[in-house]
Amino acid sequence: MSTSLSMFHRRLLLLGALLAFGLVALAWQLSRWTLTHGGELKEKAESYLVSRQWLPIGRGRILDRDGVVLAEDRPSFNVSVDYNVITGEWAFSQSYWRARRLNRERWATLTRVERRDLAEQYMPDFEGRLNRMWNELARLGGISRDELDERRDAVKKRVQAITGAYRKNLLSKKETEAGPSGLDSSGLRDELDRPVAEELMPHILLRDIDDQTAFTIIRSTQDAAAEADDIGRTGVSGGVEPTPVLPGVSVSYAGTRDYPNSSRIVTLDRSTFPGPLRSDAPVQVEVEGVATHIVGWMRGRIFAEDNMLATGEPMPRTLEDGSPNGAYYLETESIGSAGMERAAERELRGVRGVRTTKLDTREQFERAPVPGGDVRLTIDTQLQATIQALLSPMTGLAVVQPWHSSRQDDEELPRGVPTIGERLAGAVVVIEVDTGEVLAMVSSPTFTREELKETPDAVFHDRVMTPAVNRAISQPYAPGSIVKPLVLCGAVTDGKYNITERIACTGHYLPNEPNILRCWTEKQFGTNHSVLFQHDVDGSDAIMGSCNIFFYEMGKRLGLMGISGWYEKFGVGPHAARWELGLGYEYEGALPDGAKSGPSDAYLLGIGQGQIAWTPMHAADAYATLARAGIKIRPRLLKDSPTITSDLRLNPAGVEQALTGLRRAATEDQNSTAHHITIPTLRGPVREVIFNVLQEPGLHVWAKSGTADASAIVAKDENGRNRVMRDGDHAWCVLLCGDESSGSPRPKYAVAVVADYGGSGGRVSGPIANQVVRALLNAGYLKRSARVEIAVPGDSRP
Questions:
Q1: What is the pTM of this model?
Q2: Peptide bond into 642 cis (omega under 30)
Q3: Nearest 10 degrees: CA dihedral of 513, 517, 521, 525?
Q4: Is the N or C terminus of the chain more exposed, i.e. has fewer CB atoms within 10 Å?
Q5: What is the DSSP letter of 754?
Q6: Averaged over 737-750, what is the pLDDT?
């Protein structure tokens, strides 16, 4: 008896221990979920009772220096549809809830199959409603039902690709962490079944709809919502639950990016054009794509890198308080893709706000949006458009003309050299000397945003005219003779040349090699500058007459490292300071590799040939630095960007001699390269002054033309053979211009003009540069003086 009792007590104690152990385990698990995960679970539960709606932001404007709007948001609306409506899942969920509502008393006793069978009875009704909704939405959007269905299908394919990639990555991650055995957990199944953000958010199907359509849709959704709210309070629905006319449809404000001044009508006075193009009747030019390369454009597709922080880490979707991150880019948003739209994206975009509604209490909390700020450029839109008009084929200035070439009529042009009547591509840059601000930066031909969208091949695949390339900052050019003033300043500053020294021009630099390193005067006229000037040349003479022999000697004296160093100081080459204008690719410039170069490379650098290349922005920047006597101000496009300066410490005497040579090149009748052009007429050749703008009282020009050897453009023809598409010389004219408004002549603006494969710099780019100076005068940047000037000699003289 005692033994059995003892055994009974032992069993009782064992059962009690097991029960206690189970209770302890349950208590531990409860405490773990309460203490450790309680906050997380509470937050998750409360999230089902919260509705969040984004509050749109207005993107900032892009303005020119005078406040002219170059880019702004135009009020418009987008129509989005919930993803479950797009997929059709909405119809089943509505059918299911109707079945449950109408069979409330016995619902708990039904099996899953019986519940589904009941729900399917109501499916035709809701599917019909969806079909009517899609028809109505297509009608309101002004598109066909087929097109709307294509948009729905595109959304489904995109979201399915996103969810598939997410779940594949999740499986791979879990397998790496836990091994194949860890893939059977219910927690993983829950994660895989959990919808991703793209499955929970509405997707845009109609973009940029008008106000009336937007308000019609909004009224439909609001009326249905109000009816549903009344039923929720009263419980009365007449036996039929309300269903919105447009289920799952929402309307959101979405400012469409507009570029109101991308097209302009420019009236040009042709009375000062070269003779054959001259007319007393002005010409009106419709200019399209004004400043497209500068202002840029938007794209409506968001990439993963758009949501990356500066540290390279992904941007969080939510803030620390759990609210959505308004800086995070949603799939439905647009982002700056090029130009200032991209460079100033952070300033222009702002941060979205969010309105949070608690569904159980109807309380609302709002985080106000931070609107984007305006960005002001240094560009003058009217000046930009005027220069673009000057480069239009309508004016004839950037079209091959009979006087452009010095060849005889019976000479056959090499393959690829532009012939009479062909348009010339090119670029113009205008910089304000005192500030470094870029007033104009024209690349011709350009393109419109409509062409970018509708005919991208014409924009990106034209090998000759290359409208997509911003020639002002991205296209490499050999500089040719326009670098000679810079080389002179470097030689004087380094003590390699004394401004009183004269050097003989013999026509060819090497005494025993008459066919290489020649002066252009010997090539064209069989003479040399010492003969033409009747004395050996100094630095001023050499710049005015563009003497190659003088600058071969400067290259030799400076040496390859010395002359390359000066080019680098003026901003050329991979080790020079960059502009950082923010417009994308900036060609840094090219200089020779000292380890692979010989003495002759230094000679060629003296005349801007050989292993050197730069851009029109380099040229205008360098001449502006020369005008400041060696003070370098980094060119800038943003008005509020900081002024960054450095001092090249140029020898003032060298600068003065260089400026004197540039002034003489534009004003002296004899032996100068930027003074006149010769135009063939029936009466014989007629000489015309290039810079007839100097006839305006008080205006001054310091100019240098240049004709630079250029590499041919070669492409394969229809037979797969290489064919020369373009060949010849690039035509340069770079100048400084100013007036006497400060009491004495002083350069105020630097202008660089280049015509691709145009040939002679003086004949082709000179007349364009003259009209750019006139545009600065007409825009009020240059001032005429009150005194009367004597007309510049040499105009229209036979």
A1: 0.78
A2: no
A3: 40
A4: N
A5: E
A6: 92
